[in-house]
Amino acid sequence: MTRTASAIAAGALALTALVAVPSSADAATKISYTNCTNYRASSHFRHGVGRTHGGDKVKLGSKSKPVTNFKHSTELYKVAIKHNPDLDRDRDGVACEKH
């Protein structure tokens, strides 16, 4: 009887934990992917998001320096590009990099 009661309590606790945690899909729907200005304003990644081993490329002779403080996450980059491929117009693996 004691084992059954503790098993039921453990199962109820685990079920409560699953219900209480929001899924990543819910968090992703709150981010606006219409353009980079809206993406930066609605996400935590003010300097953009890029592939894990991605790097910002700048044109030769340009005065701007490559952005290095973007969020490195291939998964987040793929989600952003899936919603709007124009977020990475220069196709360097970093979406919405801010110079």
What does the model show?
The chain has 99 residues and is mainly alpha-helical. The protein has one domain. Helices cover 42% and strands 6% of the residues. It contains four helices and three strands, in the order H-H-H-E-E-H-E. It has helices spanning 2-20, 24-29, 36-42, 74-83; strands at residues 49-50, 71-72, 94-95. A three-stranded mixed β-sheet has the order 2-1-3, with helices on one face. The longest helix is centred in the N-terminal third of the chain and has 19 residues, at 2-20. The chain starts with a helix and ends with a strand. The relative contact order is 0.18.
Q: Mind sketching the topology for me?
A:
Elements: H1 2-20, H2 24-29, H3 36-42, E1 49-50, E2 71-72, H4 74-83, E3 94-95
Parallel strand pairs: 1-2
Antiparallel strand pairs: 1-3
Task: Give the structure's gist in a few sentences.
The chain has helices spanning 2-20, 24-29, 36-42, 74-83; strands at residues 49-50, 71-72, 94-95. It has 99 residues and is mainly alpha-helical.
What class would the helix/strand composition place it in?
mainly alpha
The number of distinct β-strands equals 3
In which order are the strands of the major sheet placed?
Answer: 2-1-3
Computed over alpha carbons, the radius of gyration is 20 Å
Series of H and E elements = HHHEEHE
Mean pLDDT metric: 78
Number of individual domains: 1
Straight-line N-to-C gap? 65 Å
The low-confidence runs, each spanning 5 or more residues with pLDDT under 50, are 15-23
Q: What share of residues is helical?
A: 40-55%
